[in-house]
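Recap slide: Transcriptional regulator, sequence and predicted structure.
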Amino acid sequence: MCPSRLVLEHVTSRWGVLVLAALLERSYRFSELRRTIGGVSEKMLAQTLQTLERDGFVHRDAKPVIPPRVDYSLTPLGTEAAEQVWALARWTERQVDAVQAARKAYDEGRAQQG
């Protein structure tokens, strides 16, 4: 597998996109980020953050206080990736009607053939 394909998979995964988009706004603590994203399990969010941190997109700042405090933010590389992914997400939202029309035409054409 091409290395760039794996990176692309990480930033465009279901949770990767949402984590990057949320962190584009500001830094978050784990529980805040989980509430902001919604629908993600603790395990999946932890795994996604760890993957994005390993790839250099997310910075994990663990503060040695009681109780422990960990903040997540984007690195400069992560900000650039988030902006690119978010632009694609916005483009997709603008094109939903066109895609649905294309699907309908395709399905009607297939029904007439079969």
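Strands lie at 28-29, 58-63, 69-74.
The first strand starts at residue 28 and ends at 29.
(End of recap.)
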